[in-house]
Amino acid sequence: MKVEKTRTPVTVAEAVFRVTDRVCRTGTERVPLHASYGRILAEPLTATHDVPHFTRSPYDGYAIASADSAGASGSSRVSFTVVDHIGAGEVSQAVISRHEAVRLMTGAALPAGADAVVMFEQAVSEGQTFTIRKAFAPQENLSLQGEDMLAGEMVIPAGRFIHPGVIALLATFGYAEVETGRRPVVGILSTGTELLAVNSPLVPGKIRNSNGPMIAAQLARMGIPYRMYDTEADQLEDCLLTVRRAMAETDCLITTGGVSVGDYDYLPEIYKRLGAEVLFNKVAMRPGSVTTVAVAGDTFLFGLSGNPSACFTGFELFVRPALLKMMGADHLYLPRTTAVLAEDFAKANPFTRFIRAVYDGTTVRPAGFNKSGAVSSIARGNSLIVLPGGTRGYASGDTVDVLLLGTEEGTDEWGL
Ligand SMILES: Nc1nc2c(c(=O)[nH]1)N[C@H]1C(S)=C(S)[C@@H](COP(=O)(O)OP(=O)(O)OC[C@H]3O[C@@H](n4cnc5c(N)ncnc54)[C@H](O)[C@@H]3O)O[C@H]1N2
Ligand code: MOO
């Protein structure tokens, strides 16, 4: 088999752009509210009524007409008579006359004639009467109709992640079902004759397949369904058959391994046989320089490196935003921040370097063994330090860019 040995690297930003620019939404589907968590809102969410839709008391207390409290002060008490008593969910039939009040609980509708609420703590109760020692302003201690949202107001645009707060909003407006971006079904194919199943005993030269389960978990974290595929051996024909089957059964396929220039790295030849358009096959980054993305028909083929740290990073940088866009998300990228490097990093960075790292809110430090083949630092890290290409010698105390991992939601800006 003849594979090209020289590839032209693209920058990380260019690679991300090439993928996200090509991806289209995979459609929409209606799901019950309880199943909508973690999906992407396909329609803007507009308030169908004012919230709250009636003026209510935000406190346990007494509803009064504020004008009746005029003159109350530290040295002058004003007295009221309680004419009704309501809890939340009840509506008083009383219409307050001069120096009358309705005793009401938090959330109860304000009775007619009242325009302020005296908290229990602001009153001295004596049977059916109470006194106050301060004057109340109109609308004091009220939760006004529409103060949170007004009918017709667009509250959450389409493309946003449905998190618990959005679920609360949907429930507020009575959405028993929600229109969401369809989740793509993703195939995972781990290639390599050295790979053993997770429950296999170790034998010389072989290793357990850690990338497959890792990618499955990266997908699960995004709520995306997946199917696992196996090849019998590192045989081109066998691998091609499996890729074709996976393409027929899924919306996109993630492979790991076999994408470099080795004698058994069949993926480049498979892309050729499929007539796939290769968007890029080398990225100016470490790890993950061999990351390849190709499109065959309307199926995306993500060729991630076999090296675990490179595989992990390739998923987070390229696969994740693509899948989010397939679901119709408008925020595609990992949230990023800056942090103070907590230890020296002396290595040169000929290309953009992504270092698995531990970020504590202020400082960030490499999460340990930092080779492309490392597994330990993926397990220990919660973030990626990003060091630009063409730099060297970062010292403890330097400020560096950090991408945050493990959040379900993206940001709308590719900022690196
Ligand atoms: N002559 C060159 N050799 C290599 C180059 C190069 O430019 N010229 N690039 C190196 C870089 S960088 C990387 S990264 C690797 C990428 O190779 P592949 O993506 O084709 O991956 P494999 O060769 O199949 O495997 C690499 C490594 O990872 C282990 N592996 C593979 N699959 C898994 C898995 N599912 N779970 C755990 N570990 C896995 C595999 O055993 C190898 O050790 O190529 C360099 N070589
Ligand atoms: O792709 Mo390799 O992981 O750059 O080291």
CATH homologous superfamily identity of the largest domain: MoaB/Mog-like domain
Low-pLDDT segments, ≥5 res: none
Structural class: alpha/beta
Largest sheet, described in full? 6 strands, mixed
Strand order of the largest sheet: 6-3-5-4-8-7
Number of strands: 26
Total separate domains: 4
CATH class term of the largest domain: Alpha Beta
The radius of gyration is 30 Å
Which outline best applies? elongated
- N→C terminal distance: 38 Å
Give the proportion of residues in helices. 10-25%
How much of the sequence lies in strands comes to: 25-35%
Number of helices: 7
Assembly type? single chain
On the 0 to 100 scale, the average pLDDT is: 95
CATH architectural grouping of the largest domain: 3-Layer(aba) Sandwich
Give the CATH topology of the largest domain: Molybdenum Cofactor Biosythetic Enzyme, Chain A
Write the topology of this structure.
Elements: H1 12-22, E1 28-32, E2 45-46, E3 61-64, E4 78-86, E5 100-104, E6 116-119, E7 123-126, E8 129-132, E9 154-156, H2 164-172, E10 177-181, E11 186-190, E12 195-196, E13 207-208, H3 211-221, E14 226-229, H4 236-249, E15 252-256, H5 267-274, E16 277-280, E17 285-286, E18 292-296, E19 299-304, H6 308-326, E20 336-341, E21 345-349, E22 352-359, E23 363-366, H7 376-380, E24 383-387, E25 391-394, E26 399-404
Parallel strand pairs: 4-5, 11-14, 11-15, 12-13, 15-19, 17-22, 20-23
Antiparallel strand pairs: 1-10, 2-9, 3-5, 3-6, 4-8, 7-8, 16-18, 18-19, 20-26, 21-25, 22-23, 22-24, 24-26
